[in-house]
Amino acid sequence: MPDHASATSTLSRQIAPAVIATLFALAMSACVLGVVIWKALESKSATLERGQTATQNLAHSLAEHASHTIQAADISMSGIVELLKYRTPLPDRMNPFLANIVNALPQIREIGVLSVDGAWQYSSLSELPRYNNSDRDYFIYHRDTPGAALRISAPIQSRLTGHSTIMLSKRISKEDGSFGGVLLAAIDSDYFNAFYNRFQLGVGGAIGLMRNDGIVLIRWPSANVGADLSKSDLFARQIKLSSVGYYKTISPFDGTVKYFGYEETSQYPLVVTVARSESELLASWWATLRTDALVGAVLLCLIILSAALLWSQFRFRMKTEHALREREARYRLLSDNIADIVILLDGRGTLLYVSPSVEPVLGLRGGDLIGKSCFDLVHPDDKELVLAATARPSDPDSTNTVAFRIARADRSVAWVEINFKLASEQDGQTKFVGVLRDVTQRKMMEDELTSLNTRLAQLATTDGLTGLCNRRTFDGFLRREYAARDTLSVLLFDIDNFKGYNDSYGHQAGDECLKAVAKVIADATSNTSGMSARYGGEEFIIVLPDVSEADALRVAEAVRLTIRALGIPNSASSRGYVTVSGGVSTKTKAILDEAMLVGDADLALYEAKRLGRNRTFASSELKHSFVESVPLQFLLEP
Question: Which of 110, 263, 538, 549 is catalytic?
Answer without folding.
Answer: 538
